[in-house]
Amino acid sequence: MRQEDDRVLGRETRGPIGAEQLDTVPWNHAGADAVVEYSTSELTAICPVTGQPDFYELKLSYRPATRLLESKAMKLYLWGFRDRGVFAEDLAAILLEDLIAACEPEEMTVDLTQQVRGGLQLRTVVRHPSER
Fold first, then answer.
1. Are 29 and 67 in contact (CB under 8 A)?
2. What is the pLDDT of residues 79-91, one digit of tens each?
3. Contact yes or no for 68/25 (Cβ under 8 A)
4. What is the pLDDT of residues 35-65, one digit of tens each?
5. For this structure, is 54 an active site residue?
6. Distance (Å, rounded) from C-alpha 42 to C-alpha 100?
7. What letter would DSSP give residue 3?
8. In the annotation, is 23 catalytic?
9. DSSP-assigned states of every residue in 37-98
10. Catalytic residue among 5, 6, 54, 111
11. Residue-wise burial string across 38-60, b where 16 or more C-beta atoms lie within 10 A, e elsewhere
12. pTM for this one?
């Protein structure tokens, strides 16, 4: 866990942050049957081939263990993909890996839909633990 003086929460922040800067807060209700959900249609990244912007709808859900993702840090973390070249499928996997590392949830699902480009809409769903 990061030191309190390194946290994004409660401090003025003027730009995106990396995965290593994601803040979490304690979840003191381990016995609760809880699911936390985030959603946004404001996630963007760059196509690594064409350099054109890609627009995404993100639906994130997780069952917390002992830590919660802090919402301000989440917004700033997602902002960091705006200028990053990445394919949609890779973006979904990166989000899952980074967010699992940050809060170590019991379960997590990243459901990422790339808005229509060239007549196709692309949806990638990745889960932890996987449902194989």
1. no
2. 999 999 999 999 9
3. yes
4. 999 999 999 999 999 999 999 999 999 999 9
5. yes
6. 21
7. -
8. no
9. EEEEEEEEEE-TTT--EEEEEEEEEEE-SSEEE-HHHHHHHHHTTTT-B--HHHHHHHHHHH
10. 54
11. beeeebebbeeeeeeebebbbeb
12. 0.89
Identity of the residue numbered 36: V
Mean per-residue pLDDT, 5-28: 81
3-state SS, residue 101:
helix
Catalytic site residue from 47, 90, 98, 111? 47
* Beta pairing, strands 107-117 & 67-69: unpaired
Query: What percent of the chain stands above pLDDT 90?
Result: 83
The pLDDT score that the predictor gives to residue 8 is 62
Among residues 106, 49, 48, 42, the alpha carbon closest in space to that of 74 is found at 42
Q: Hunting for tokens 């890779």 — which residue is that?
A: 90
